[in-house]
Every structure is written in C-alpha cells, then in structure tokens.
Amino acid sequence: MEKRTLGSQGLTVSALGLGLMGMSANPGHPGMYGPADERESIATIHRALELGIDFFDTAEVYGPYINETLLGKALQGRRHRAVIATKFGFKIDPDGRIAGVNGAPSHLRSVLDASLQRLGVDHIDLWYQHRLDRSVPIEDTIGAMSDAVKSGKVRYLGLSEVGVKTLERAHAVHPISALQSEYSLWERNLENDVLAAARRLGVGIVPFSPLGRGFLTGTVQRAEELPEGDYRRSDPRYQGPNFDANQRMLAAVTAIARQKGISAGQVALAWLLHQGPDIVPIPGTKRRSYLEENAGATAVKLSAQDLQALDAAAPNGTTAGPRYSEKMMATVDR
C-alpha cells in the first residue's frame, strides 16, 4: 500500500489507517455502531497488517480504556509493524463516564503512563490531545506533551478538532504532525480555513468518520430504524427530513460507484485520498470484510469529471443537519 507522510517531522504511515473506536463500547453507547466481537476485532487488526495498513487509531476514552487494551493484545509480537496513535484529554469518572476535559500538564503525565501500560508498549507513535481544554493555555499542554517526546515515551504530537489559532499557537511550541478532524463529502467544514492553515504549517490531516458514520456507504438505515444503543440514533443528520435531504449527496456517490463497478464507500474514500497526499483517512470497522473493501479504495482513480460531480453534489456546508448535538459541538474548537 502507498505510504504517506504526516507533518514535517517524518511520520510515515499507510495511506489509509484503521479507526478502532467501534470495536469497543463507549460511554452512553454500549453498542456504538452495533455489537462488537473481540475475536473478530483482533482478526481485523491482523488482516489490516497483511494488507499493508499499519496506522491504528485508538483513545483512552474508547471503552473507556478497553480499546487501548484490545489494540495492545492484537499487536503482541507485531508491535514493530504498527504505528500506534492514541488520544487523551477527557475527564473520566469512576463509572466510566465523560465528566469534562482536562489538558493540565499534571494530568497528562499520569494518563500517558496508563495508556502505555494498557497498550503494552514503551512508546506511543502519535499522541493527540483529544479535545481542547479552554481552561488551560494550549502552550502549557503542548509543553507537557513535548516533554513526553523528549523522554522517549512519545514520538510525534497531534491535535484533534482544533481551530486555526489553537493550531498555530501549539505548533509554535512543538511541531504538530497531525490534525485529526471529521472530514468527508458529508462534512467539509475543515475546508473553510483549517485545511489551508494546516498545510501552511506543514501539518498532516487525519480524517475520522470519512464515510459519514456509514451514510456514504449507502447501507445504513435512518436513525429511527437503528437499534437502541447505536450512536447514530442521536445523529441529527440521520433523523427525519435531514436523512432524506442527504440522499442527493449519496446518489452522486452511488452513480459513480456503479459506473466503476465498485462500492459507494470506496468512491467516498477515494475522493478524500484525492484531496492531497497529506491526507490519511482512518475509516473505522470491526469486520475484516469491510476492512478489505475500504482498503480497495486506495487503488481507485477518480477523473476530473468524477471529482466535479461529487463536489457539485456535496458542496461545503450543504449537508442537512448539524453534525453533532449542541452539547457535543461545544467541545469542537471552531
């Protein structure tokens, strides 16, 4: 598989990564995207390595905690073949619920050692602040993260869902290799100003939910028809008239997929990969069959006409419905 470089410090990863969030239950969503099976999840991670996918994305809050443990278990004897990315930044109460954010330097040091222990490794390749803590200057947070690099416990630093000013201030303290953010035909807000700023600074882009939480595959039902516990039941874009309005976008994706004899999901991922060599999507799945389908997107070539048709069907800002609830949007730094 093609390799891509994230940032100016030399972090090289497969052109497509694997998001692991759906492999574990999460606070408030025990099924998240449907039930998970540990044996199949581990087999999926192993299959990813066979396909040349070496970039694995987890976080302490996934589970919480058990997702990192799962990845560590799957990579026993295979650590040298993997690039491990994990995230910190939430307060997690004793019941495993999110109780706010915490970017204090003292907090960082304790959660870093806990993540290393769960992963069973002596260093993390890419360490992100999951969400900005507005009560702590970003310079203080990044300073503590930089200390982790100096100690050898972390190789590269990243941020998730921050805006231009935060990214610039952070990068002035220590080079930021990757910015993780939702980005897809379904969600193009990053293009307003953050994408250009990241490229000016030499920061790579790691899009999560590159398939619109499954919408762009054309295989997921509307919110009302999804089982209890599925995260998308509370997703505004999956609800009522929003779901219906977003079918126009999906129709363009499926039309190109039919022409090429591939899946709609492969078209959506290929569109992202065509947006630049500094972009590494991390579609999430917990099944080998979907992983193999996603991996096939790296070989898809879209013509200028294809790209024009997709852009016309999904202009920035036209997806019906907000991408998060008001409470969740408050955690996004833009």
Output the keywords:
334 residues, alpha/beta, TIM Barrel, two-stranded antiparallel sheet, 11 strands, 15% strand, globular
Describe this structure in words.
The chain has 334 residues and is an alpha/beta fold. It has a single domain, classed as NADP-dependent oxidoreductase domain (TIM Barrel, Alpha-Beta Barrel), CATH 3.20.20.100. The protein is built from twelve helices and eleven strands. The protein has helices at 38-51, 66-74, 105-119, 138-151, 164-173, 194-201, 240-245, 247-260, 264-273, 288-295, 304-313, 326-329, and strands at residues 3-6, 11-14, 18-19, 55-57, 83-88, 90-92, 98-101, 124-129, 154-160, 176-182, 204-208. The protein has a seven-stranded parallel beta sheet with strand order 3-4-5-8-9-10-11, with helices on one face. A two-stranded antiparallel sheet has the order 1-2. Helix 5 (164-173) runs parallel beside helix 6. The radius of gyration is 19 Å and the shape is globular. The two termini are 34 Å apart.
